[in-house]
Specification:
The protein is α/β, with parallel strands linked by helices. It has helices spanning 14-23, 67-78, 99-102, 104-114, 132-149, 216-221, 240-249; strands at 2-6, 28-34, 53-55, 61-63, 85-92, 119-124, 158-163, 172-176, 181-182, 189-192, 198-201, 208-210, 224-230. Helix 1 packs across helix 5 and helix 2 (67-78) packs parallel to helix 4 (104-114). The mean pLDDT is 92.
Length: 250
């Protein structure tokens, strides 16, 4: 089995190292990750400046670009083969609900999915890497289970996985969930620079708005590992007839 690992926290992030160590003996595993932290870069590709690939002292290759850049470059020439699986993470903090739209962790996995490869994005719910060994162990079990069921002709899939930041024995069985929703983000933070200019910092994510039973928020709050299948088609299919009528009248 050939596995490509990436992330958005950077090639030296503890979560990436832990994920590699957990998966490295499952097959041929390679890492191509961003040089710097690229959180909230979503699916962005770098189109107007050159990208370079280097190898770090830890053996991982890194790119001066986004998570999606890393996977895109790997799949379109760097590796020279098509992996069986693309894995992203383990992210330092949750990627649930609306977070998935912005997430670089999910963006890296989605890039693999767009190339027809099964892909998983792994995140820990709480920031700070507490109980990272437990999260890595859970990631390995899930990868083994999924790849043992995978046939060569199967359609690709994309999973968003959030793991409670708990000791291994306190993480409950997995739940297949839907994305919850958040309230709007907190207000922008303004500061004055040393030169007297106004600086703006994006505010914190909003609190959970829909964390009802069945959502990723609810599952992880209860201590379960949350697995949410994602797809890329953003079309609001149910509203197509309504919009055809509305625009025909216009």
């Amino acid at each position: 089995m050939n596995i490509l690992i990436s992330n958005d926290d950077g090639y030296q992030a503890p979560g990436l190292v832990a994920l590699y160590e957990a998966l490295k003996d499952l097959g041929h595993v390679e890492v191509v990750a961003p040089e710097q932290n690229n959180s909230a870069k979503s699916n962005a590709l770098t189109l107007h400046s050159p990208l370079y690939v280097h190898q770090g002292l830890n053996g991982f290759r890194y790119v001066n670009g986004t998570p999606a850049d890393c996977v895109h470059i790997a799949l379109t020439g760097l590796l020279g083969y098509k992996p069986d699986l693309v894995v992203s993470g383990i992210n330092d903090g949750a990627n649930m609900g609306d977070d998935t739209i912005y997430s670089g962790t999910v963006g890296a996995a989605m890039e693999g999915y767009l190339f027809g490869i099964p892909a998983i994005a792994f995140s820990q719910v709480e920031k700070g890497w507490a109980h990272l060994d437990a999260a890595a162990a859970k990631a390995r079990v899930l990868v083994e289970q999924l790849m043992s069921q995978q046939s060569g002709a199967a359609d690709p899939w994309l999973l968003n996985v959030n793991i409670p930041s708990r000791p291994l024995e306190q993480i409950k069985d997995l739940r297949v969930t839907r994305l919850g929703r958040r309230h709007a983000a907190e207000r922008v933070i303004t500061q004055t620079s040393p030169r007297g200019q106004t600086m703006y910092w994006i505010g914190s994510a909003g609190a959970a708005k829909d964390d009802s039973d069945g959502t990723d928020f609810h599952a992880t709050f209860e201590g379960h590992l949350s697995v949410t299948p994602l797809h890329v088609d953003l079309t609001e299919h149910a509203e197509l007839p309504t919009w055809r009528q509305r625009l025909a009248r216009a």
